[in-house]
Amino acid sequence: MAANRNRNTCKRVATGLALAFCAGRIPVPAASAAEPEAALALALQHRVEALTAPALAGRAAGSPGGHAATDTLVSWFAAAGLQPAFGDAYTQEFPLTGKGWTGDDLSGLTGRNVAAVAPGAGALAGRWLVVAAHLDHLGTVAPPSPSATVPGPGDYYPGANDNASGVAVVHETARRLRVGAGEASRRSVLVLNTDGEESGLQGAAWFVKHPCIALDSLDAMVNLDTVGHLSDGRLIVSGLATADPLEAAVNAAAVAVGIPVNPSRGGWSGSDHMVFNTREVPVLFLFGGPYPEYNRPADTAAALDYAAMARITAFTDALVGHLRTVPGRFAWHMVGGGDLRDQAEGGTAATDKPGNRQTWLGTMPDFTEGQAGYRLAAVFDGSPAAAVGLQKGDVLVRFGDYDVTDLATFTTALRAYGPGDLVEIAILRDGRDMRFTVALGDRAQRR
Apex CA 242: angle with CA 241 and CA 246, to 5°? Predict the structure, then answer.
């Protein structure tokens, strides 16, 4: 009874926050002619703060906080004047299965995708783009006490970068879709916020099985995930080779905005676009790069770079504007091989490899293409990797009994062992062959 009371309180508070946005009591400022980037950065910050509020308790799929987040997104779409995507509704409900990131049973819970439409015009009106960002995150670190109305700092995963940042950028892009689109012929745009991404891309998988548009009319899916800052000042964009027009569109947007891009040809990175790629839909994945607060309570609104997010929004605006007017149908190309990517060790891979998903080393991958081995872009403080002295820039080439040639082989090796196992690993550091014995940890240690 106390737990139910707490969930209802959270839902009332979060729904009130959503209604406040809709009524203008918590305004999302529009960019002004005098200082467009500053005003845009402030609008993005307000959106992220709304989605990371304690009342939403980390937006876990199927939770009261997650459902309250979808209410907020519905109000934003309505305020932007976009049409509901699912008949007269902005939401698409679906049954969740399996376990959440923290091990909770999701059976009997319901996820909610949220989507809206900006109609096209002319000869291309029947062709579509999807611009997407997942709305869910990890929820609470532990069940809140019965007396608590909302979780306190450190008691939940705010998910500011992953992926309130992507949702904020997508909604600022959506707010502009009706303005200045005077071309005689342009594609329609479906703006999509998926649920259940953190528990196995479930919302995206449900959407492609139950789409509100014909998939053969969909020319590209643009996915934004973890765009709260720019790693080394560059935006990582993958999927450029999945259709012929994509590379030119990315390059044109980068030049227009003046943002450096780290390009990748394949579209197998571990986020929602991968589901569309398996259905032979061309994809582009926009990613800001690894960051130390990943999947921790420290991933707060205060940790993001809103000036960088404003630039990413400008890039997304330019990219979508270009893609809307490219003539003809986009033909999908299969790009496979060594371009498997993932957002972090142990996450969802393209083949969802079996094994122990709880094993933790404590590293983030370098997403640069064309290198052998598993290069470390970051080592988490307090992790097993940090304990033995692994460093950014090390290239892991062997893990226990497994040769490591890329992220996919590293993921297979990691999952072959369990938390507490002692494993010898081999790395290359500045041309030197080095070996370490590491005691592997559990993902629950990532706080």
Answer: 65
- Report which of residues 316 and 279 the model is more confident about: 316
Instruction: Give the domains, in start order, of the chain with CATH numbers.
Output: 2-325 (3.40.630.10), 359-445 (2.30.42.10)
How many CB atoms neighbour CB 199 within 10 A? 25
Residue 185 has pLDDT above 60, yes or no: yes
Give percent of the chain with pLDDT exceeding 90. Answer: 60
Amino acid at 269: S
Query: pLDDT band at residue 3, thresholds of 50, 70 and 90?
Result: very low
Strands 395-399 and 422-429 turn out to be: antiparallel
Distance, in Å, from the CA atom of 244 to the CA atom of 241, rounded to the nearest integer, reads 6
pTM over 0.85: no
Cis peptide bond N-terminal to 251, omega within 30: no
Note the pLDDT tens digit of each residue in 344-356: 454 433 333 445 6
Distance of alpha carbon 309 from the chain centroid: 14
396, β-bridge pairs: 374, 427
> Residue 182: pLDDT band by 50, 70, 90 thresholds?
low
